[in-house]
Amino acid sequence: MKIAYIGTYPPRECGIGTFTQNLACAMTAKNQQGEKIHKRLIIAMNDFDETYVYPPEVKLTIRQEQQTDYLKAANFINSNGADICILEHEFGIFGGNGGVYVLPLLHHVKIPIIVTLHTILENPSYTEKAILKEICKMADKVVVMSQMAISFLTSVYDVPDKKIAFIEHGVPDIEFDRKQSKSEFKLKKKKVLMTFGFIGRNKGIETVIKALPQIIKNHPEILYMVLGKTHPNVLRSAGEEYRNYLQLLIKNLKLQNHVLLLNEFIDETELFRYLSACDIYITPYLHEAQITSGTLTYAMGSGCAVVSTPYWHAAELLQDGKGRLFNFNDSNDLAVTLNTLLDNPATLKAIQRKAYKYGKEIKWPRIGEKYLELAKSILKTPKKESIKEEITIIDPLLLPPFSLAHIKRLTDDTGIIQHAKFGIPNLKEGYCLDDNARALLMSLMAYNQKKNPLALELMPIYLSYIHYMQNEDGTFRNFLSFNRNFLDIKGSEDSFGRTIWALGYLMGNAPNDAYYQNGKLVFFNAVPIFERLNSIRSIANTIIGICYYLQANPGDEEMITHLKNLSSKLVNQYENNRSKDWHWFENLLAYDNGILPLSLLHATQILNDEKIKSIALESMDFLTENTLKNGYLSIIGNNNWYVKGEERSMFAQQPVDALAMVLMYNQAFLLTKDKEFLNKLFLSFMWFLGENDLRMSLYDFDTKGCCDGIEKYGVNRNQGAESSLAYLISHLTVLQAYEELYQTTDFRSANLSKEMVNN
C-alpha cells in the first residue's frame, strides 16, 4: 500500500505530530530483507506563519489558515497513487471556525479515509458538533483510543458502531534500566515525581506543588520534575504568565530544592530516559473532559506508577490497580495518596509492574499492525460506482494567493492613501474616510480568517484615522491632505455609513478588548446621527453596521429601534419607487447597488420581518436580472447609470459594485441556505479576474492591486485603495462563503459518493 498521512509532523513541537510520525513509521516498517512493504506520503500541517525543515517523507505542507492549501493537498493525494488516507484530527490544528477547512479536503479525496480522533467533546458547540459529524460521515472508519469515546460518538454525534474502531494510543518501544537512569541523572537518593507535556493552566501543576509540603515532611528526598514548554497557543495569548505563577508559588512555599521546571520539548528517547528515572508519574488535570492523553499512555508504557485526577481517559486506563486516582484540584487528597504509596514500596512496585505489562501490549509495532489490518479490511470491501456531484461552482483554487502587498504600499502611519498612479501611491490626493473604513473592515476579516499578521499590524492605523476624523457632534470629516490638513468640515453621508459598517463589524470581531473599546467609543458617539440620515446608501451601510453590532449585543433594545426605523426608511423608499417592471428603491440603478438589498438581508436576520425579507429578495432578483443575465457580471456603468426607461451605461464599471454583489449573494445564502446564491457570488467575484464585458482581468498579479474599473477605452490601470480593498474583501468573502457551505449540516445532499461508498 501507499498510505497518505495528514497531521502535524516533527520538527513541529506537537503531540499530534509525534503520534503521526510514530504511526507512519510503525505502518511502514521494513521486512526481514530490509525492504519497506508499504510506502508513506506525509502531508504536514503548519501553524499560522511558522515553517519547518521537514524530513524527506513530508511531500507537502498545508498552511493552517490557507483554504486553498487544503484543496491542493486533496489533488496531490489523488494524483500520487495513494491507496488510503489517514487523517489525525484535533480541532486546534485545522483552520477556519472549528477547523472547518478540513471538510473540503476530505470531500475531494477520492480514496478511502481513516480518521483518528484525538479529541471528542461531550458538550460541543453547534459548529464543533456539525463539523465532527461531517468528518465521521466522510470517513470510512473512525479510530478512537478509549471506550468512552465510542459512547460519545454514538450518543452525541450519531456515528454508527460499525464505523468505529478502537485502537489504543501507541508508545515507543524504548526501555532503560531504572537504576542506571537515576544514576545518570544523579537522582539515586531522590524519590522522583514527574509531569510532562505542554504546559498551560488546565494542567493543574499547582495542585502538585501545593501538596509537596505535606509530602516532604515524611519524604524529604522528594523531587518534582515538570518537563515541557508552555503550549504555543498559551504563549501567543498569555505569554509565560502561568509558568511565572508556578515559579512564584514555588518560591513562596520554599520548594526551590524540591521542584524543577524544565522548559524544553525533549525527544522521545530522552523522555523515556527521564520516565525510567521516575518513581511516580502525576497527571493533575483540572477537568474531566479529556478523552485521550498521550502523556498518560507514555508514562504507563514506560512502567511508571501513575497518580491522576479522574479525567475520562485516566479513569478508564487506571482501572484494575494500574494506578491511583485523586480528586480534582485537591492537594490534600493528592498528598495522602502519594504518602501512602511512598510509605508502601511493595504496593508501588505492584502498580509499576501492572503498568509495565500494559505498556508491552501497546508498543507502536503492535499498534501499527492494528492500523494496517484496519486499512486492508477497508480496501477489501467492494466499492459501489458513483458519480461525485459538485456542491457549487466556487473553486478557491482559481483565486490568486491572498496578498496585502499593495495595501501595505498604500498605507503609511496616517492611513491608507486613497488613489494611485498605476500601482504607485498618489500622495497628492491624500486620504479619505471611506477607504480607511473599508481598510479596517478588510484587515479585520483578514486577521479573523487567516490570522494574517500584517492585517493586525495595519488595523490600528485605520482605526486611529477614523477616530481622528470624528467631529465632536458625532459626524466625520472625510478628506485629509498628505500633510495632514483637513480638507472638509463634514464628510458625505455615504462615508458616514461605511464607517459605521466597519465599526459595527469591529465590535463583533475585535482582536482584543482595546480595539473593541475604541471602536465602541467612536460608534456610540455617532449614534445620534443615525435618525438624521437621508442618503439611502448611507442608511443601508449604517443598517449593516448596526446588524453586526447586534450580533454581538442582541439585547440592545435602543439599537434594535434604530434598526427598525432605518429599515422602514428603505422599505418606504422601495414602495414609493416600485412599479410593475421596476423593482427598485429609486428611479435609476446607480452605484453600489447591491448594498441596498444586502442591508435588508442583514436586517431580516435580526428582525425576522417577512416584509423586509420579501423586498430584499425581490430587489435582489431585479438587480440580478439586470446585471447577471448573460452568465457573467455586467455592472451598471457610472457614466450615466441606468435611468428607468432609458439606456443603461456599459462603462465606468467600478469594483465596489462587484464587491456589493459578492456580499449580497453571500448574505442571501446565509439567510436562505440556497446554494444557487453561492454560484452567483462566485460569478460576481470572477468579474475581477476577467469574467466581464471586456474579458480582461482587473487584478494585477504583479502589484497585487486591483485596477480602478472598466472604461470604454479598456481597463483603468490605476490601482487606488477603493478598488484594491473591494477586491480583497470580495476575495475573503469567497473563502468565507466556501467555509460557510461546509458548515451547513445539509451540504452533503449534493454529494452522494461517500454515502454510497459507506453504505
As laid out across the biggest beta sheet, the strand order is 3-2-1-4-5-6-7
Rg of Cα set: 30 Å
The coarse overall form would be elongated
Which regions have little confidence, pLDDT < 50, spanning 5+ residues? 384-389, 745-759
The count of domains is: 3
Quick rundown:
By secondary structure, this protein is of the alpha/beta class.
Question: What keyword list fits this structure?
Answer:
single chain; 759 residues; alpha/beta; Rossmann fold; Glycosyltransferase; 3 domains; seven-stranded parallel beta sheet; six-stranded parallel beta sheet; 28 helices; Glyco_trans_1
Structure notes:
This protein is an alpha/beta fold. It has 3 domains: 2-170 and 368-380, Glycogen Phosphorylase B (Rossmann fold, 3-Layer(aba) Sandwich), CATH 3.40.50.2000; 178-362, 3-Layer(aba) Sandwich (Rossmann fold), CATH 3.40.50.2000; 408-741, Glycosyltransferase (Alpha/alpha barrel), CATH 1.50.10. The chain is 48% helix and 11% strand. A 7-stranded parallel beta sheet has the order 3-2-1-4-5-6-7, with helices on both faces. A 6-stranded parallel beta sheet has the order 10-9-8-11-12-13, with helices on both faces. A two-stranded antiparallel sheet has the order 14-15. Helix 19 (493-509) packs antiparallel against helix 20, helix 23 (595-607) runs parallel beside helix 25 (655-672) and helix 26 packs antiparallel against helix 27 (721-743). The longest helix is centred in the last third of the chain and has 23 residues, at 721-743.
